[in-house]
Design goal:
This protein is α+β, with helices and mostly antiparallel strands. 23% of the residues lie in helices and 27% in strands. Helix 1 crosses helix 2.
């Protein structure tokens, strides 16, 4: 059975489909010695290599990790360009990659896996998967800040979707997003005249942050079952 090259690489546990597309575009992938076009299909018996390394679609056990990322750790698999990368920090014995990002100054929950299919289902913005954060600002919350954050803020040439925001302290609030714009919460606060001093993600979908900073755990069987149920109607990339 034939499979698109980006899906082949994700199912082999090498990287996500998004990362695979970048490798293909950069000419780092070959099929039977030839550089493929985007969307090329891999047939049974084809030899696939990435930067010369042979990739096999094996029966590797799927890994799903929940990690409490500390401030200062970078969510990248690029060990050469970023010494504080998440992969070296965790030191997991098999190849895994993060689902999405949590910027360097932020802390909290992030998933890591070798299941490229679930990566795409979670990351697709139109699937409206919730992510919950606790935020501390540089000064007291005043005026219509909570209302304005809830209704949507103009950033990055768009207006953020309406979302749940609740004040939890003089300078603190809780926010639940279904979008994943670059540095979204920080940009929203900046637009309204505030600076984020601390940002912590405490939930992704049905999985809550319940481990000490800098530690990780496997998904619990019931968590994975519920996550898969929630993803049943999610759109995947081709």
């Amino acid at each position: 059975m034939s499979t698109r090259i980006n899906k082949f690489l994700s199912e082999a546990g090498y990287c996500s489909r998004r990362a695979a597309d970048k490798l293909i575009a950069a000419g780092k992938v070959t099929i039977n010695g030839e550089v493929p076009e985007m969307g090329t299909k891999v047939e049974e018996g084809d030899e696939v290599r990435v930067e010369g390394k042979l990739i096999k679609r094996g029966v590797e056990e799927l890994v799903y990790l929940a990690f409490h990322k500390p401030v200062g750790v970078v969510c990248t698999t690029d060990k050469k360009r970023e010494k504080d990368n998440i992969i070296e920090y965790i030191g997991y014995p098999s190849r895994i990659f993060p689902i999405g990002r949590l910027d360097k100054p932020s802390e909290g929950l992030i998933f890591l896996t070798n299941d490229g299919d679930i990566v795409n289902k979670i990351l697709r913005a139109k699937n409206n998967h919730e992510k919950e954060y606790l935020v501390k600002l540089n000064r007291s919350i005043q005026g219509n800040f909570i209302r304005d954050m809830s209704n949507g803020v103009p950033i990055l040439e768009t207006v953020t979707n309406p979302c749940f925001v609740e004040q939890t302290g003089d300078r603190e609030f809780r926010i639940i997003l279904t979008q994943g714009l670059n540095r979204q919460i920080r940009r929203m606060c900046e637009y309204l005249g505030y600076e984020v001093k601390r940002l912590k993600r405490i939930r992704i979908m049905n999985i809550h942050l319940d481990m000490p900073e800098g530690t990780w755990r496997d998904f619990k069987p019931e968590e994975l079952a519920e996550l898969n149920r929630m993803l049943e109607s999610s759109t995947k990339t081709d």
